[in-house]
Amino acid sequence: MTNLIDGSEVSLRKFLSNLSPVDQIGAESRAATLATRSIKNESKNWAIDLAIRMVDLTTLEGADTPGKVKALAAKAVRPDPTDPSVPSVGAICVYNDMVKVARTALDENGGKNIPVAAVATAFPSGRASIEVKIQDTKDAIANGASEIDMVIDRGAFLSGHLGEVFDEIRTIKDLCGEKAHLKVILETGELVTLDNVRKASYLAMLAGGDFIKTSTGKVAPAATAPVVYVMLEAVRDFYALTGTKIGVKPAGGIRTTKDAIKQLVLVNEVAGPQWLDPSLFRIGASALLNDLLMQRMKMRDGYYPSPNYVTLD
């Protein structure tokens, strides 16, 4: 915890009420303007490889099987088996019961340095007791997760129970300790306003989150440009206040190379180039990696390949 608050409901309310309100029109306009930016062709290969390194390759379906997770792990290590110059992804993100399968498969395929991120704390709803959320997190870490993607209790946040949300994040952060990084999912599509997105971002950072994440990918809208813009402003300003850099992870709806490059432009222009690193920016996605690979092939070969040239996720 920083010295900005003492952790009490009173201090949380006081701090968050003193945040400047979000100029929604201004944020939407600025985000839209940045979305029109393009990058020079010679920089595109660099941007594509950086985006690949930032991908949290994700499968979060009830129909997930060990075989599917093993195949995804192999792809995480070698996204294009025909081209060893393609970098590995940032992480593989799975449900709790698939963590051990993912960790073992990554290790067997030469991906010992690729972390497994587990969606814990009653993902995606967050509707469970703190005892269940604690056990969920303990199980994930015991099975080999080195990143925990937790969901906040949006009902508590929207009801004004800020201390309850803070305490839950703090409890899960304490469980993570040095063993795992904590990504706090705000589920911005349910927070209604950009002001709430900013307040929830600060609440998560004050409670010790290592990353703030837009969404579960199960609720629309998800990672919209104005939402990511506001979150990037929050981590930038939090760094200015505390000297602590917090990461950002947009998730949901980022499917194409063009989408990914728009995210990189936002990062560079809002938070700054220091955040153009997988340690501070990730993209939660499944379909995105295939498009990045096909765009990379086009840059290399001069023509757009068939989707058959990449494996299905």
- List segments where confidence is low: pLDDT < 50 over at least 5 consecutive residues: none
CATH superfamily: Aldolase class I
Assign the structural class, choosing from mainly alpha, mainly beta, alpha/beta, alpha+beta, or little secondary structure.
alpha/beta
Give the strand line-up of the largest sheet. 7-6-5-4-3-2-1-8
**Count of the domains:** 1
Helix content: 40-55%
What count of helical segments does DSSP give? 12
User: SSE order in H/E notation?
Assistant: HHHEHEHEHEHHEHEHEHEH
Q: How much of the polypeptide forms β-strand, as a percent range?
A: 5-15%
CATH topology: TIM Barrel
Report the span from N to C terminus: 39 Å
Q: Could you say what the CATH architecture is?
A: Alpha-Beta Barrel
Q: How many strand units? A: 8
Which sheet architecture does the biggest sheet show?
A: 8 strands, parallel
Shape: globular
CATH C-level name? Alpha Beta
CA-atom Rg in angstroms: 19 Å
Description:
The protein has 313 residues and is α/β, with parallel strands linked by helices. The protein has a single domain (9-302), classed as TIM Barrel (Alpha-Beta Barrel). 48% of the residues lie in helices and 11% in strands. It is built from 12 helices and 8 strands. An 8-stranded parallel beta sheet has the order 7-6-5-4-3-2-1-8. Strand 2 (91-95), helix 5 and strand 3 (116-120) form a beta-alpha-beta unit. Helix 6 packs parallel to helix 8 (162-176), helix 9 runs parallel beside helix 10 and helix 10 packs parallel to helix 11 (257-271). It starts with 8 loop residues before the first helix and ends in a 12-residue tail after the last helix.
